[in-house]
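Lest this sound abstract, we let one protein speak, letters for residues, whole numbers for local backbone shapes, and leave readers to judge:
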Amino acid sequence: MRFRLVRRNLLALLGVCLVVATLLLSTRVLVVSDDDFREAKNAGNAHAIEPTKRNFGSLPELAKSLYNANYKQRVHNADKFPGDPQLVLVVQVHNRPEYLKLLIKSLEKAAEVHSFLLIFSHDYFSEEIDAIVQRITFCKVLQIYFPFSTQLYPSEFPGQDPRDCPRDTSKDDALRIKCLNAEHPDSYGHYREASITQTKHHWWWKLHFVWERVHMMQGYSGFVIFLEEDNYILPDFFHFYKSVIEFKRNSCPDCDMLALGNHNGLPDFTRLSNKVLTTSWMSSKHNIGMAISREVYYKLVGCSNDFCTYDDYNWDWTLQHLSGKCISKPLKVLVAQGSRVLHTGDCGLHQKENCRPEWASQKVEEALQSTKDGLFPPSLTLDGAETVEHKPHMKNGGWGDVRDHSLCNSYVKQL
């Protein structure tokens, strides 16, 4: 009996490895190899490469065109805005084009935006979204594409395979009907849902691709700021960022991360505009306008297996788990008390109905009227210094499938 159990577990593990290996070989879009990277860089300035067109005709054609785009990395508007970027913003995009338009509208109004590099990382691919980004003319723009999107794998892992166990099947029933992942429910007895796991996969892949494979990031020494498509930035975003960097250098050299936004909205913005706080990084508070350095990125890379096996489908709660566990010293964050990033989305992963982007636009315009007197503060002051410690939380599950663990870990192994 014991031998049969060991044998079954070994076969299951072998199956997982074969799945991941097949994915890597079939797409070739996970990362650009070292040889590919040198070839692209030595071929000349990456900015000058001809535009890469996305082919939406069929899934194989689409996958091939996305690989080519990730490989060639054509930077739009590079000739118009020469030189290295002063700030890199990475936007994770799914399928909310109206909110994406709002974000781009706010970026266009931001002071000194011409010095930015905007990287849009997509896990949903459509001509509409592509056209929205292509119309940007005010700074350098690069689009990258998550190669393991469920859109590209509609009926096989990492999408939802029809042979997978239904979410709420008991393990006994799953073993009886021999569905594919019967041995691997999450901590709460539920089986994976592809639509739920995708965001964490995309975030982890994007983190590595940006820091390791984006040509224009080579030599970049600043922070990378991570946004989402339903964010909206204030006009003094870059001014505030530079002030925060100066404050960190002079008054908080041990701060690991920055949070240029918070979830409090804009009440009392004028009073709070020039105030910052130091504290432990927390998912529910500091996942908006989050900025990390290359040094912190390497700390996260060292925790890849912990990130990829922790049973929580949220990248940010997983990050909080790492802080003070795998990363022995809890991550210290420098937080804007007057948020420079607003959350406009009224729908998302768990709410698909009754999305009202027109209401979001109206609310943003009204809120911005209250910020005028507080923008562009000449200097920053410390408003509080909380104890930096590990903040435990109850994991949310949704990440128990060993196929997800293996695919997630493969992103770092390819570097």
